[in-house]
Specification:
2 helices, 173 residues, six-stranded mixed sheet, Elongation Factor Tu (Ef-tu), domain 3, SH3 type barrels, mainly beta
């Protein structure tokens, strides 16, 4: 069984393209082009299901046309409309583009050098140029912490901890 913490969100399927089963996909991370996994994953009826890629081609700089194995017509392809697309972390190779965080850091614990453990990253807000970690603190509140390299002391990927040094007053906003 595939678990959410084993995946990185890389985009979303849009609608079928043509009559041979191709699906338009808007991607936020080109992992399937940079990495070497034979499949992508979608959440179907509450279960993460792998789908093998037969072929793909880029339509423009944010859209690709993907042909999945055993999806051979527009009717089959329509079932994928608006499904989020995930990539298995075990095949994932980080991009050189630091702005593309995807969901990689979800589940990491954030520890500040002054205040100690702040909580766990539950989401990434990348809607603006200032990317934020959304952190659930132990008291139940939600913290918005800038995902700025200048604030990060180190990242322990094995233990899933982000060690940060946040400016005074940032957490009081």
């Amino acid at each position: 069984m595939i678990r959410r913490d084993e995946l990185v969100k890389i985009g979303r399927f849009n609608k079928p393209h043509g009559v041979h089963g191709e699906i338009s996909m808007t991607f936020t991370d080109d992992a399937f082009d940079r990495c070497d996994s034979p499949y992508i994953v979608c959440l179907v009826e509450g279960i993460f299901v792998p789908f093998f890629i037969e072929e793909y081609r880029f339509k423009n700089d944010s859209t690709a046309l993907i042909k999945l194995c055993d999806v051979d017509n527009a009717t089959d392809a329509a079932a994928f409309t608006l499904l989020d697309v995930y990539y298995p972390k075990r095949y994932y190779v980080e991009s050189d583009d630091a702005a593309t965080l995807g969901d990689y850091f979800i589940g990491f614990t954030v520890v500040d050098s002054e205040k100690g453990t702040l909580g766990s990253v539950v989401a990434i807000d990348d809607a603006t140029a200032n990317i934020l970690f959304i952190v659930a603190s132990p008291d139940g509140s939600e913290l918005l912490i800038p995902a700025q390299e200048a604030f990060v002391d180190s990242i322990d990927e094995q233990e899933r901890i982000i060690h940060m040094h946040l400016p005074d007053g940032l957490l009081d906003l």
